[in-house]
Structures are given as C-alpha cells and as structure tokens.
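Appendix B.2, paired examples.
Example (i):
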Amino acid sequence: QVQLRESGGGSVQAGGSLKLSCAARGVNFRGCRMTWHRQAPGKERELVSSINGDGTTDYAESVKGRFTIAQDNLKTTLYLQMNSLKAEDTAVYYCAATCSRVYWGQGTQVTVSS
C-alpha cells in the first residue's frame, strides 16, 4: 500500500527558507516520477518540481534557482528545499508519486509573510 506523508511546512517571513519532506511507503523511487505540487487559495493545483527515477529534475519557472528537489532512495524520502521564499509561494504543498497510477499526500501548509 502506497502512503505519502508531507512535513516541514510552516510560517516564514519573505526571504526565509523551509525544507519540506515527503515520507513515502510502498514506493519504488527508481520506478516512479516524484513530484511536488502546490495549491494556493482560489487557484488550481500547479506542478512545482519533479524528479525522475534516473535523477533528472525539472522546475516551474517561478521557482527556478530558489527551490531544489531531492530524494533519498535509502530512506524513501522526497525533499523540497525552498529558499528566498516569496509571499506568492504561500500554498498547500503536496507530494505525489506517479507509478502505475498517481498517489497523493495530504499536503502541508506553507505561509510566507511579506
């Protein structure tokens, strides 16, 4: 059974940093595409970053140079290091695993005050 659980969200001032974690159970990282998404109030969920089983990464233009995605295959944990946070980064952040189907975590709130 696949289970994804995010942690590390919180409140921070603009310019600050947060590191999100996503503990994954039942997921083979090498066989899945792992992603971070976010959804701000009144907006659609958007893809923030992705990492494939071979380690290749991609980022939304809005977070390039500020966010870094990584995964620990041994601990089966996905990370999102977020630096130079802006008020517009405020959202609920979700991790997802695209394997034979898509699995979602419950989300963690990130609030950036200006």
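Example (ii):
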Amino acid sequence: QEQLVESGGGLALPGESLRLSCQASGFTFSRHAMSWVRQAPGKGLEWVSGLYSDGSDQFYRDSVKGRFTISRDNTKNTVYLQMHNLKPEDTAVYYCHLLGTLTWGQGTQVTVSS
C-alpha cells in the first residue's frame, strides 16, 4: 500500500526557513517522480514543485523560484522541500504527491506570520 507521510511544518516568521520531509513507503520510490502541492486557507490546491525519479531536474512555480529547493534521497525513500525567505503568502497545508497516482500525504501545516 502506497503511503506518504509529511513532517517539518510549523510556525515561522517572515524571512525564516523551514524544511519539509515526505517519507514514502509501499512502492519503489526511486522509480517515481514526486511533487509538493499546497493549499492555502480558503483556496484550491496549488502545485509548488516537482522532480524526476532520479532528481536530475527540478521544477518550481514562479512564486517560489529562488526560495524553495526540492530534493530527494532515494536511499531513504524521502523527498524534501527546503523553504527559505518564507512569506506570509506561503502559509498553507503542504502535501506530498506521488505523480500519476491518487496517493497523497496527510499534509503538514506551514504558517508564516509575524
């Protein structure tokens, strides 16, 4: 059974950093592209970032380029989202997603506020 478990969210001041982690299990992690998606309060899902199975290419939405970095460790079945220079508009529940499937994590809350 495919499973994704996010962690690392929390409360941050504007300009601070957080690192999200997503632990995968139940499938061959190294064969699959992964992404991060977020949902701000009262808004729809918004794709944030993604990368290929081997991590060779990373993709970002414009609003996070230069601030967020996606990476993965296939030996640990984990994908990360390093977030720097956080802004209040980054406040959302962040979900890990196994691309091409309906497999999502439970989400981790990120709140950026002074």
